[in-house]
TrEMBL record:
Signal peptide span: 1-21
InterPro entries for the chain: Ribonuclease_T2_eukaryotic, RNase_T2-like, RNase_T2-like_sf, RNase_T2_His_AS_2
Family of this protein: Belongs to the RNase T2 family.
Descriptive protein name: Uncharacterized protein
One Pfam family here: Ribonuclease_T2
UniProt-listed SUPFAM superfamilies: Ribonuclease Rh-like
Keywords: Disulfide bond, Signal
Length: 319
């Protein structure tokens, strides 16, 4: 009888290990990613600071496309670009990042500027804690800036500098003054020319590519600064370069220069909100869901068979 109990106990452990592994693979891994990357100690030296602004409308659309449960937090003011981060960067590579693995993020240090951050450094991904973006940016990028530059060696200085740069070089103002308005399509060259005319530097233009519609949306613009906090060309940052026959040299972008770039004025419907589907699309969706369900059932059946075999083997070995 004791051996029978042992067999059942071992089978139970086997099942628990399977359930734990299966469920953990489905959880959001963003916090684990931070913790794992934080174990990597890097040389904090860098060449440039990349100040990344993003269009919250596109950022929201990208977030909602990932899950039907995702909701967005958007700034109350319309037509403003928000801050993604300030990223110390070595030329022709990525990083450094997580330069102080013992660092902690203390949101109370941001009390004097928190109201401004809630508007201009907002976390569009509202399902997450309101300060999760600030925490991530400080631990991953801010610690590297702090290790090298006195001007950015505290949370208040680091995030405050971002607010200052946004006030000086807001993409809402830069693009608007150049005739680039939300709700229209533009070419990458038109957007780049406006940026060069107003800031006299080469910047990176980042698009979000909708895999279903094949449309590309204006998503982020990355402005570079040197260690004196002065505007600098972004040439040499690790990004996709598209060479064009113009006096300014090359354009730094992941956008397709042969297709229009949409600058949305409102958040488009996500694929989960598009209820009007053709019979063919409905049939395809049904088949895909059926296949996923059958694959899950087959996997569970194999687990049960293996548990049964294990119990029988243990019983046989004790006879």
């Amino acid at each position: 009888m004791k051996l029978d109990h042992l067999a059942i106990f071992l089978a139970f452990l086997y099942l628990q290990c399977y359930v734990w592994a299966d469920s953990s693979s489905e959880e959001d891994s963003s916090s684990d990613e931070d913790q794992n990357e934080a174990l990597l100690v890097e040389d904090p030296e860098f060449d440039l600071l990349i100040f990344t602004q993003r269009w919250p409308i596109t950022a929201c659309y990208e977030w909602r496309e990932k899950s039907a449960d995702h909701i967005c937090g958007l700034p109350s003011a319309q037509n403003i670009w928000t801050i993604h981060g300030i990223w110390p960067t070595k030329l022709n590579t990525i990083g450094p990042s997580f330069c102080n693995k013992t660092a902690v993020f203390n949101v109370t240090e941001l009390d004097p500027i928190e109201k401004q951050l809630e508007q201009f450094w907002i976390n569009v991904e509202k399902n997450k804690p309101y300060d999760s973006l600030w925490r991530h940016e400080w631990l991953k990028h801010g610690t590297c800036a702090a290790a090298v530059m006195v001007q950015l060696n505290t949370e208040d200085k680091y995030f405050g500098q971002g607010l200052t740069w946004l006030q000086q070089h807001s993409m809402a103002d830069v693009l608007g003054e150049g005739g680039i308005k939300p709700g229209q399509n533009y070419t990458v060259l038109e957007i780049r020319q406006v940026l060069i005319d107003r800031l006299q530097k080469n910047m990176a233009i980042e698009c979000y590519h909708d895999k279903e519609t094949k449309q590309q949306f204006l998503n982020e613009i990355r402005v570079c600064f040197n260690k004196n906090l002065e505007l600098e060309n972004c040439d040499g940052i690790l990004f996709e370069d598209v060479f064009i026959d113009q006096p300014q040299g090359k354009i730094i972008t992941n956008c397709n220069v042969n297709k229009p770039v949409f600058y949305p004025a409102t958040v488009p419907l996500s694929r989960y909100e598009k209820t009007h589907m053709s019979p063919f699309d409905l049939h395809t969706k049904f088949l895909e869901e059926y296949k996923r369900q059958k694959a899950k059932e087959n996997k569970n059946m194999k687990i049960l068979v293996n548990i049964y075999k294990l119990i029988q083997l243990l019983k046989w070995s004790t006879m």
